[in-house]
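Weekly structure sync, notes
Attendees: PL (lead), two postdocs, one rotation student
Agenda item 3: pending single-chain targets
PL asked that the sequence for the first pending target be pasted directly into the notes so everyone works from the same version. It is reproduced below exactly as submitted, 111 residues in total.
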Amino acid sequence: MRVSPDDRGFLFGDGVYEVARTYGGKLFTLGRHLDRLRYSLGQLRISGVDVDGIAGVARELLKRNELGTRDAIVYFQITRGAAVRAHGFPIHRSAPRSTDTLPPSYRNSIR
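Predicted structure, written out during the meeting:
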């Protein structure tokens, strides 16, 4: 796996994570973890994530690492991905953008 140097999760911590525990190779309360992950993604307006598909990926990860009968943890981290380098929270394109709180020199440069 590769992480772009422009990934907002890498640069700004713009993402969510969830940690699921396994006991004897079985993911414990996975549905609750996925519900919480889905909620967190919604709060940050990160879309396009197949949260339901993560269960299969987690099981395959455990299998490939020969953890099918052991206790382990699975760490899910989802970021917004690479985006235009801007320090502010990404504003939905249809949302109005207010520059009233910016200093005049900045306001003039972005209009």
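Discussion points:
- The mean pLDDT is 82.
- Residues 18 and 76 are 5 Å apart (CA to CA).
Action: rotation student to compare against the earlier draft before next sync.
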